[in-house]
Amino acid sequence: MGLKRLSSGGTSRSLLLPLKHLEDDQQNDGYHHISLQSAVFSLSTSVVGMGIMGLPAIMVTVGLIPGIFLILLVSFLTNFSINILLRYSYECKAISYTGIMVHAFGRVGLVFLKTCIIINNFGLLVLCLNIIADTLSGSEASSVHYSGVLEEWADGQTWWNQRTAVMFLTTVFILAPLVFVWHTDHLEISSTTSMGTVILFVIIVTTIFFYKLISGTISMPKLFPTVHPDTSTVLSLFTVMPILVTTYTCHHMIHPILSQLGNESDSKRVITISIRFCAATYVITSAFAYILFGDDTLNDVMGNFNAELEVPYGTLFKDVIRLGFALHLILVFPLLKFSLHMNLDSLFDQSASPTTVDNSHFFLVTCSLLTAAFLGALSVPDVWTIFQCIGSTSAVCLCFVFPGSLVLRDQDGIYTVREKLIACFLIFLASSVSVMAVFGDIYNLFT
Questions:
Q1: Which of 24, 168, 188, 421 is the most exposed place for a label (fewest CB within 10 A)?
Q2: Taking every annotated instance into account, which residue ranges of this chain make up the domain Amino acid transporter transmembrane (predicted)?
Q3: pLDDT of residue 363
Q4: Nearest-CA neighbor of 394 among 343, 351, 352?
């Protein structure tokens, strides 16, 4: 693949992203190709992330049928926008999302893109820590305390299973060793393990659902939203789209993962398989979890699994689900940090040497990011607020606004009229939903 031009003016190497086929006299940094399966696991891990936790709650707002429809709609739009990026990168010979934006919009496009990636990934790091803490140490919703796994094991709260202690110990002794990696190919095993925990979660939730369905203990879910003629109810319907967009945001990870494929012709297969797998996972877990818990479904669905499931081996299932999900987020964390680190380096110091060589710089930035994420999680413990903030700002830009703008600009004349119409819809959808979601949050603050 080699070094490819970002524009007619020069070349660029993405930090933390090793180039293929280096000459023999160049530095050997331990890089190797990854298989199609590994690429699917890595991309799916970066997509499915925290969506499993947040999406069941949207069913409470919009109902079962609209909820499923929206999940599938956003998956289609995500696949479309990713293919836009791939086609554009082939035309302009760019090796990254950054290269595409530089080619189309110059320095302004680069700054906007990297700012959105930094906001998005840092928010997701904070979100990861919060959900891990909620799962292990417990959480509160509507003045009701939901005990975590460690709290149940200790028969109550102690100093070591309190929220702050759990976050600190997890960050220092578990996450820190994982984030000191230099390339995504080093995360191959963790990505595979992470997807294994997702599949296990889906299997257990499906098993519980069918057991309760057969035993007749499931109530009829709300199929459509209950709309009252008041402003807060109407505005609440717009809060679900930012959550959905956040759960599918992976566009800035596409090129780092696909660039390491041994066979470049597998790129589209990786995208298609990953998006379809994630969409199916979201539909199954969201629908089944909502049917199981009804309108009592929490913003963090893990809290619902703290209650008695009323199935054989219910306690075992609860622990496996919560511990498995915590493990999944722990393994997602390095991928998010990888992209955040890469973009911070190139935004603030484009002349900096690659972090694979400058170990002191790599160590300093990594420690700073971990510390900032830890403090952010302590300051903003509400996962729903973080989901909405990310989804209505950086995520909609990365997923819809930037790809749609590329199609409308169409410098090289490669897009069809149909694609331009879809691009217009992407930008309109992202803009309108973002404005309404932000307005809704402001409205709720003063009412």
A1: 24
A2: 33-445
A3: 86
A4: 343
CA distance 273 to 44: 9
Domain range enclosing 234:
31-445
d(CA 237, CA 433): 10
**Domain containing 268 — which CATH number?**
1.20.1740.10
H/E run at residue 141: strand 138-141
Q: Quote the number of domains for the chain.
A: 1
What local confidence, expressed as pLDDT, does residue 303 receive? 78
Asked if 167 and 175 count as a contact pair (C-beta separation under 8 A), the reply is no
* Cα distance between residue 168 and residue 371, in whole Å: 10
Cα 446–61–218 angle (5° rounding)?
A: 140
In a domain, 20, yes or no: no
For residue 318, is it within any domain? Answer: yes
CB 191 within 8 A of CB 335: yes
pLDDT at 9 exceeding the cut of 50: no
Report the distance separating Cα 119 and Cα 113, nearest Å: 10
pLDDT in tens, 190-220: 777 778 888 888 999 999 999 999 998 888 8
What mean pLDDT, rounded, does the chain reach?
Answer: 81
- Domain membership of residue 10 (yes or no) is no
Confidence of residue 188 (pLDDT cuts 50, 70, 90): low
Lookup: tokens for 325:
């999900």
End-to-end CA distance of the chain: 56
Check if the beta carbon of residue 355 is closer than 8 Å to that of residue 361.
yes
**Is residue 6 assigned to a domain?**
no
